[in-house]
Amino acid sequence: MIKDKFDAIVVGAGPSGNAAAYTMAKQGLKVLQLERGEYPGSKNVQGAILYADALEKIIPDFREDAPLERHVIEQRLWTMDDTSYVGMHYRSDDFNEENPNRYTIIRAQFDKWFSGKVREAGVVLLCETTVTELLRDPQGRVIGVRTDREGGTAFADIVILGEGVNGLVGQRSGLRPELKPDTVALAVKEMHFLPREVIESRFNLTGNEGVVIEAMGTITDGMTGTGFIYTNQESISIGIGCIVSDFAESGRTPYGLLEAFKRHPSVRPLLEGSECKEYAAHLIPEGGYNAMPQLFGDGWIVVGDAGQFVNAVHREGSNLAMTTGRIAGETVVWLKRRREVASEANLAEYQRRLEATFVMKDLRKYRRIPDFLHRNKQIFGTYPRLLTAAAQTWFRVDGVDKRAKEKQIFQAFRNGRSLPGLIGDAFKLARSWR
Ligand SMILES: Cc1cc2nc3c(=O)[nH]c(=O)nc-3n(C[C@H](O)[C@H](O)[C@H](O)COP(=O)(O)OP(=O)(O)OC[C@H]3O[C@@H](n4cnc5c(N)ncnc54)[C@H](O)[C@@H]3O)c2cc1C
User: Fold this and answer.
1) Which residues on adjacent β-strands are paired with residue 428?
2) Which segments of 204-289 does DSSP mark as H helices, in order?
3) Cα gap 409→417, rounded to integer Å
4) Contact indicator for 222, 380 with CB cutoff of 8 Å
5) Which of 258, 288, 270, 285 is nearest to 365 (CA)?
6) How far is Cα 132 from Cα 50, in angstroms, rounded to an integer?
7) Residue 110's closest CA among 140, 80, 156, 66?
């Protein structure tokens, strides 16, 4: 395919692959990037919130021309039952700062832009090229890739796998096990178009301000999962996702959940009159720290979703992808400068560097959460029902005195989940959260 030997081959042009390729090319390395999609972003799905900090560390002036939708000034967290929700809102004018902290984006546009920067930095990008396997030397060291192109092999000192959650190259090459249905979520998402003034009045926004709503509760019908609603300039992204093994057990469909979420009386008015122009589905690796595969070996490094770098509790993924991609790139540059080979022993530096970042600290902190959520489904059904019923008792003025209402609420919690159950759940949550 390509005769030259490269310093590095990057598989995938998502945020992780782009971050790695850009970082290495900026430091003068010769980089080949392979993307199976027609163009970068054509196959990618995200909510999507972009966390500025991770990108700023790669392209400090990205705000000058990146396709950003709205900067987030308000975060809502909804605990829902079938007809209502108990919510927490945080809104601050401080988020109208000069360099905003979070933005909504549209991935197809954002990935195209990021890829433009990567190519400007000197990376050779080949789209519509699927990497099918890793090539190894007789000692087992990875020395390149085979692709689905005619005679499609390419060689490099190191291969960086940024192929996303369903990383078949790494899997087929025995670098990581098959995805387990209880550590991966299936999410579906729609884009609903509305005039920007309508979005702004419905969500109480001006200019490019944006709102993020994260939702959990009976909307997932007892399964482990969450929903979201994000405001773009002229569209609203709405989606919901649950753990794959829960879908298999319940027989529910992702699109069925999304339809019900859209019909919820708290959501329907937000979408009223909109036109749905896009539907997408994608997996999210949610196993966290305990599901992480080996991250490096002789001649290879894994970055982004392929390495399970997603913080499901905070719904962060693209920032972990960009950070792991950047750090992988920096590690390769560092080895190159020292004229050292990309051996497994030398690439341990990648993990050492990652350990010092929020990526490993956060994933390690939450390592017990996926298991806790999987085993404690009352978090998604019983508690939302109890909470919303308590709110209704409390706020309804009906001649019942307040002490009696307190008693009624307390009794409802005891009936719904027994005292040992309540105490046990609080204890288990606190332990998992530590
Ligand atoms: C519904 C949903 C909502 C989300 N919301 C958010 C959010 O709001 N904020 C956030 O930070 N994260 C969010 N995430 C997570 C985020 O999308 C991912 O963490 C992030 O995209 C991972 O980046 P990546 O580069 O590792 O993988 P990807 O973005 O999946 O990119 C992988 C790339 O590799 C290519 N590829 C795969 N295999 C091959 C191959 N064999 N050969 C060549 N190319 C290949 C693919 O085409 C793709 O372009 C969300 C995810 C989903 C599904």
Assistant:
1) none
2) 244-250, 254-263, 268-271
3) 12
4) yes
5) 288
6) 30
7) 66
Place of tokens 């992780």: 16
- E strand spans, 162-256: 184-193, 209-217, 225-231, 235-243
Residue 380 CA, ligand 1 centroid: distance in Å? 26
What confidence tier does 2 reach under pLDDT thresholds 50, 70, 90?
low
Q: What is the pLDDT of residue 252?
A: 94
Residue nearest to atom 20 of ligand 1 (CA): 318
Q: What residue owns the CA closest to ligand 1's atom 33? A: 12
Give the number of other Cβ atoms within 10 Å of residue 418's Cβ: 11
CA angle 7, 11, 16 (to 5 degrees): 100
The pLDDT tens digits of the residues spanning 253-302 come to: 999 999 999 999 999 999 999 999 999 999 999 999 999 999 999 999 99
Nearest CA to ligand 1 atom 41: 131
φ and ψ of 294, to 5 deg: -60, 140
How far, in Å, CA of 271 to CA of 285, rounded? Answer: 29
**What is the greatest pairwise CA distance in the chain?**
84
